[in-house]
Amino acid sequence: MNRMPDTHAEAWALLPWLANGRIAAEDREWVEAHVQGCAECRAELASQRLVASHVNREESASPQPAASEEQRSFNKLWARIEASESVVTPATGTTGTAMAVPRSSRTVRWLAAAVVVQAIGLGILGMTLSNQDSGAVDKFETVTDSEARLDAPAVSLAFAPQTSMGTVNTLLTHQGLSLVGGPGSAGNYRAVLSADAVASGATADSVAAVLSKDPNVTFAQPVAH
Amino acid sequence: MPLQIVDSNTRAVPAPHTDATERELLERIARSKDQAAFRTLYGNYYQRLSRLLARMSVRREDIEEVINDTFWVVWTKAAEFRGASQLSTWIIGIAYRRALNALRRAKLRPVADQPFDEDSISVNSTEEEETNQQWLSQGLERLPVEQRMALELTYTLGHSCEEVAAILDCPVNTVKTRLFRARETLKQVLPGLAGMSGDNS
Fold first, then answer.
1. How confident is the model at residue A213, as a pLDDT?
2. Does A58 sit within 8 Å of B154, measured CB to CB?
3. Of the candidates A64, A85, A100, A54, which has an alpha carbon nearest to the alpha carbon of residue A167?
4. How close does chain B come to A73, measured CA to CA in Å?
5. Is the ipTM of this complex over 0.95?
6. pLDDT value for A150
7. Do B176 and A14 touch (CB under 8 A)?
């Protein structure tokens, strides 16, 4: 094949994307045709495939961050987002300036609200069960999920005072937990595992073990039935 | 069996990393500040970015900060994503710029004239692949960060030339030039590559 200098240079520049399979559709045909007739480009394509293979091998050999590391990082980010958003919450005082809502009071308010919502949810669940043929009930989902089963594996939890609503929400959601009661006299809440979490292999022991390592959790123990 | 993230909407099914699925997650974040969607999107990128940043020589202690700064932008600017490019190019592009800042702060940015440590290469290895891998690791470390990123984005993450240009925020021709230079540098340090070209040209 005749090798036009600019065609060769252009094909040469595009070889990495011929090697990784992401060359633009409009370029693929002419670059492949050029490579067929150009020994230099064929050799370069082979060497680029070698580089790609080495880079990928090196990448796959690099250590993967642990799942707990990812969760810890996310918790930090979420706490930052929460802190930022609480700063712009309008104050109810007389100064007229924005101020942060104390996290602990927000958490307590949220947990209290969660228990109320759970009570409402249980009420609706009861009504639904007693009127199964009377029509559909609008489905809504909260962290105190209507799927929570009282006979499901349960854990007893307590949170650090500064733990934010979002962090509690994250911790519960990501472990597949729903609050079903609390706080008790010691400030503990009771949470049960969702059917999905149980199906994915979670147990009260495993969840308690994971949560007990979280700095926002001061107490996490499985509850014996 | 490891725990899976339980999202009240998607249940325990891990989201596939398709652009359409990720755009849905972003829309949920933009529309209703959906934390579960945000957590899923974060999980989709955490490992990918961790490894990419480590290979950019971002310090271990800075990697988490870069990722979280990136997703801070995703959280706050989700509604501003114009959708002209893939979501992954937007997110990785943000991470790239944050990483450059981290490297500047740490003064650890790799430079092209960094001395090449030939003594560290084991020439006694009987495994050619292993030797090549060691040469390659040394060669990659010699690349300026812009060239290395162009190479990593192309070969590790499999992006097209146009996507790499979008991530690095530069013209397509600049990407080609950076990869051209990276290829030339690697040829100088990788005997296998030089031999391959020489044998066949």
1. 79
2. no
3. A85
4. 7
5. no
6. 63
7. yes
H/E stretch holding A217: strand A217-223
Per-residue tokens: A199:
């199906």
What is the SS3 assignment for chain B? CCCCCCECCCECCCCCCCHHHHHHHHHHHHHHCCHHHHHHHHHHHHHHHHHHHHHCCCCHHHHHHHHHHHHHHHHHHHHHCCCCCCHHHHHHHHHHHHHHHHHHHHCCCCCCCCCCCHHHCCCCCCCHHHHHHHHHHHHHHHCCHHHHHHHHHHHCCCCCHHHHHHHHCCCHHHHHHHHHHHHHHHHHHCHHHHHHHHHHC
SS3 state at A225: coil
Statement: residue A36 has pLDDT above 80: yes
Of A17, A55, A64, the CB nearest to B160: A17
Lowest mean pLDDT among A8-17, B71-80, B100-109, B186-195: B186-195
- For the segment A65-74, what is each residue's pLDDT rounded down to a tens digit? 777 889 999 9
**Per-residue pLDDT tens over the stretch B14-41:** 334 678 889 999 999 999 999 999 999 9
Q: What confidence tier does A33 reach under pLDDT thresholds 50, 70, 90? A: very high
Nearest residue to B200 via CA among A174, A27, A43: A43
Asked if residues B58 and B9 have their Cβ atoms less than 8 Å apart, the reply is no
Rounded to a whole number of angstroms, the distance from the CA of B98 to the nearest CA of chain A is: 15
How close B47 gets to chain A, by Cα (Å)? 7
- Predicted TM-score (pTM) above 0.80: no
Whether residue A197 and residue B159 make contact (CB cut-off 8 A), yes or no, is no
Distances (CA, A) of B73 to B85, B94, B121: 17, 8, 41
User: What is d(CA B119, CA B122) in angstroms, rounded to the nearest whole number?
Assistant: 8
Residue A42 has pLDDT above 90, yes or no: yes
